Amino acid sequence: MRVKLFSLFTLVAMSFSAFAQDEATLLKYGTDKDACEQNLSIYTEFYKQKNYADAYKSWVYLFDNAPKRTKNIYIHGPKIIKGLIKTVTEETRKAALVDSLMMIYDQRNTYYPGSEARVVGYKGADMYKYKKGTTEGIQEAYSVLEEAFNLGGNTSSPRVLSTYFVASTKLLNAKVLTIEDLLNLFSDLSSVISYKEAKLSQDVFNANEKEALTKKEAKQLKRNEDEKDKLSDVKDNLEKALAPYATCEKLVEMYTRDFEINKEDVTWLKRSAKLLNKKECTDADIFFSISEALYNIDPSPSAAANMGIRSLKRQDYTKALEFYSYALDNEEDNLNKAQYAYRLAQTYGAMNKNHSAKSYALKAASYRYGWGEPYILIGDLYAKTSRKCGELQTEFLKRVGYWAAVDKYEYAVKIDPSVKGKAAERIVKYTAQMPSKTDIFTEGLIEVLTYKIDCWYTETVNVKVPE
Hints:
The protein contains 22 helices and two strands. With 467 residues, it is mainly alpha-helical. The longest helix is centred in the middle third of the chain and has 31 residues, at 179-209.
């Protein structure tokens, strides 16, 4: 009986295996392999010629009958359909083609999963492009873009971020969404944009540090630089659109009004804290109330960091160190760790604990390559202590720290052009306070190239003789 039972199970297993193989073959070649290969050849050749009208019929055959023959069905399909849409004037036919375009994205995720966020993003952006003529069409696109954003998070493309926001502004004008809805979305999108900009800046910096790039690395560098530029445009457009609504005065008024009914809503608290932080409204009492409520409900690293901002504003440095240290110790993402280490450096700097401030600034720089802010901070530490380092000594020793400060500002700009404006102001200010030619001559350093500074820090700097 055992032998017979085993044989029965074996037959069933073999049957399922054969069925699976048959199904896989059908998905790849359809019922007629020769017809499949012939249509693949025909559509591919016309596609290469950008003759989308003649490519369409053979492409449709594969889409309907052999959906897993090649992933190119879903890569080429949107271009073919969009090419046809451009040539069609009859609205019913155009609407049918748009529906077909949406089906391509859905079927791609069915048969070639793994890039759902990106593909849903394509779908949402194209849906908005072709259906933005009606409020209903915009709402439909908005829902798909919302799904794409929720799936993609920090990996969302500039196109998704931009189209999602534009669709939202249209729905605001149509009175489907409220200004609060738009502000919430702005908070979410801004967080992702800031993260992506930091990540892309680091990747670009790392690539530029290499002596030579492979062809693949060079292409990736170009893609990263292009995406960074696009993100910058998206950010500027978001800021301009929200400028009338997102002033500190209006945000404080709105969040103060709504705090009591939302003080246990984690999502509302997170969005509100992010936006107040983004718009530099952290002096307001409501920011403190929101930060405290959020931390009590959800003591995450970001919530702790908000409490650190609150404590630093109130000059409660002990508490600020406690919150920022908690944020740093419990954060896993290096870009976020860089921000928390930088905040610790700022706190120690405010306490005049310069060794610790410099140490955490360097730690922040080690978490995020190509970031200039930590070196601006170190330059500020050198500048503010320059005269004290030479206290009761020569004028030269009181001023030599400005050499080290300017070196840090120049290095910050070298690795991170985004800090150029901030650094330039300091360079002008402290260049004027550097040792004079007379001071340098008196020290016997006119012909010397470098000088070693021994203060609370040690730096070897180039001797800068004024013209």
